Amino acid sequence: VIWMTQSPSLLSASTGERVTISCRMSQDSRGYVAWYQQKPGKAPDLLIYGASTLQNGVPSRFSGSGSGTDFSLIISSLQSEDFATYYCQQYYIFPGTFGQGTKVQIK
Amino acid sequence: EVFLLESGGGLVQPGGSLRLSCEGFGFTFNNNAMSWVRQVPGKGLEWVSTITIDGGRKEYADSVKGRFTISGDNSKNTLYLQMNSLYVEDTAIYYCARGLDGYNLLFDYWGPGTLVTVSS
User: Fold this and answer.
1) Which residues of chain B have pLDDT under 50?
2) How far is B73 from chain A (nearest CA, A)?
């Protein structure tokens, strides 16, 4: 099992700020890392896969980086619609484990 | 347009059974792996089970192995999750999710979810 540790669990930020969410894995996932956004009462949406590839339709203010066991999701300029919970996930091997989530809230 | 729609959730007693369904629209079912992911309200995401393309392989989380069975009916574009011997800890929103391209565990479309409550 590849364990995922996401940080922080809660992030308070203002509109326009740059935010970074980190995800550390217990072993190398060969870059098979995805990021999802989830808003209250909704299913998750895929934002990024392959550590840095933007899913179709996702705004360019979202980006992903990292390699080996350490990965990051960056939002370059936070918008009102970005306040949500974000999850990292490895899809390299079964079970497809998720991080614990990072809630981005208004400061 | 691709979308997924789950059904079959509800209230069931501990030890009981339930079958969830997920109908897919706008794509051919057997071209993608399909999965179930669950979420206790207010908590994180937990992968439950995956059936690979053409149903060749079925994988389960340890927490449900031996109790849950995943299956698919390509003629109906429908995914199922048969849940037996349910525990209170199985209470969650159950989402079905489509695998992107040839990936088993990378989910590009999700249904809105169906709530399963296990309680006496």
Assistant:
1) none
2) 23
